[in-house]
Amino acid sequence: MARIRFVTAQDLFEAFPTASLDVDAEPNDQPSLLYLQDLADGEEPKKAVAFCAYLLPRREAVWWGCRSVRKLMPSQSAAELQLMQAAEKWIEVPEEEQRLVALDLGMKSNPNWASTWLALAAGWSGGNILLGIQATALAPPQQTPRAVRAAILSAVARLAPAERENGLRSCVADGIQIAAGDDR
Hints:
By secondary structure, the protein is mainly α. 65% of the residues lie in helices and 0% in strands.
């Protein structure tokens, strides 16, 4: 079963005005998976990373981000792994307690780490994002896909320059499989 939120690329761009900046490609009425595949086959696979992050439901987008970062960066520090594990716990049990733990860790961590962005992606998936304050502020809906995109691009940036394009394409291929529902 496909895991996409929008039938056409145009539907996605209408729902998320920030996607036009992040994807940096012209929207059209193609089915979303076909549009994603066209971006993946293009000269800038980072556009496909951004589109896929918006296309997948939030939980699946964070899951895809975690899978991608683990593939791109098999070795991480203990602190980075703690952030990744917080995001993965939210994926397994997407409840408020896990979301808040991920958000708190992400807000206190190094913004240069891909795993920081994964924790923030989980933390910004919904609910109040003000920690320790008796006020409410809801995360804008584009924050999770933007954080997933940042995580994957941060991980790719740590690869040797000659490996970056293949790393991006591998992540996008995995995202397409998840979106299509073929994610064994």
